């Protein structure tokens, strides 16, 4: 099965060992530094449930950004699923800390019209773990094959009602990525973070990529400085559609998901 086929059937695919553990450890250092900065100011980090946060960052805050977006597997998946004019629109991370609870089953945004009418996916989310995931750390849980689920009962077009939970609980697969692994999924595939019963945090990098007709860039605010832009390979410039500025401004988060704030009811 090709990666495109996996995304369209299961809603998720992955590559084991794409990067070294040392690369992943450096990524975690950058995430932790960015979280310390973001959590010190209003709007820097947003809650995605109790003891669970999301932060958006600029590419320059991640030393491995160019490595990630030029990785042959990432480029191939983006091209195959989204087309040759794909656009990198989001860089951020989720951190569930000790005490994080089960999230409600959800998708990350309402289903676009093109997906509902044409069954075409026009965005992808890549995830990379900062730790070797174990069962007590609140692993990511996904219900494969649910990226096209559609019901007027979905709250905000994102949250299935509890009457649908039995189906998702039966489909649920927990993922245990290790440092250096990459996954790619449709953010429409129904998923949730589970309860973190350990004493460790589980930071996960998020790279969001759109087809040209998607609009997720509206929710994000990444930028690059002129010097950084000039240092980028052409492959990155071709797909990184964001402002080029003289000085970076810390990001105030735009993409809040109100239904996740309280955790599972």
Largest sheet report? 7 strands, antiparallel
Count of helical stretches: 8
Strand order of the largest sheet: 1-8-5-10-4-3-2
Any idea how many domains?
A: 1
Compute the gyration radius: what is it? 17 Å
Tally of DSSP β-strands: 12
Q: What is the CATH topology assignment?
A: Jelly Rolls
* Full CATH superfamily name: q2cbj1_9rhob like domain
CATH architecture: Sandwich
Outline type: globular
Q: Secondary-structure element sequence?
A: HEHEEHHEHEEHEEEEEHHE
Helix-residue proportion: 10-25%
| Unreliable stretches | none
Q: Alpha-carbon distance between the termini?
A: 37 Å
Class based on secondary structure composition and strand pairing: alpha+beta
Protein name: Phytanoyl-CoA dioxygenase family protein
GO molecular function: dioxygenase activity
Organism: Paractinoplanes pyxinae
Keywords: Dioxygenase, Oxidoreductase
Brief descriptors of the model:
dioxygenase activity, alpha+beta, Jelly Rolls, oxidoreductase, 265 residues, seven-stranded antiparallel β-sheet, globular, Phytanoyl-CoA dioxygenase family protein, 19% strand
């Amino acid at each position: 099965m090709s990666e495109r086929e996996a995304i369209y059937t299961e809603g998720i695919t992955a590559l084991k060992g794409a990067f070294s553990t040392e690369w992943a450890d450096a990524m975690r250092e950058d995430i932790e530094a960015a979280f310390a900065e973001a959590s010190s100011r209003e709007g820097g980090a947003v809650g995605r449930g109790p003891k669970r946060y999301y932060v958006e960052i600029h590419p320059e805050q991640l030393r491995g950004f160019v490595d990630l977006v030029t990785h042959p597997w990432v480029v191939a998946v983006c091209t195959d699923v989204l087309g040759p004019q794909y656009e990198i629109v989001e860089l951020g991370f989720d951190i569930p800390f000790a005490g994080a609870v089960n999230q409600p089953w959800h998708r990350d945004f309402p289903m676009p019209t093109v997906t509902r009418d044409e069954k075409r996916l026009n965005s992808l989310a890549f995830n990379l773990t900062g730790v070797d995931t174990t069962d007590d750390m609140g692993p990511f849980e996904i219900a494969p094959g649910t990226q096209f689920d559609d019901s007027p009962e979905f709250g905000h077009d994102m949250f299935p009602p509890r009457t649908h939970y039995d189906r998702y609980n039966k489909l649920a697969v927990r993922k245990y990525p290790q440092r250096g692994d990459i996954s790619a999924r449709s953010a429409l595939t129904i998923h949730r973070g589970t309860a973190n019963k350990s004493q460790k945090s589980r930071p996960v990098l998020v790279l969001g990529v759109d087809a040209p007709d998607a609009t997720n860039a509206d929710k994000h605010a990444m930028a690059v400085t002129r010097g950084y832009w000039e240092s980028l390979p052409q492959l990155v410039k071709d797909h990184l559609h964001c402002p080029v500025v003289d000085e970076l401004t810390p990001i105030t988060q735009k993409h809040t998901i109100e239904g996740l704030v309280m955790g599972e009811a």
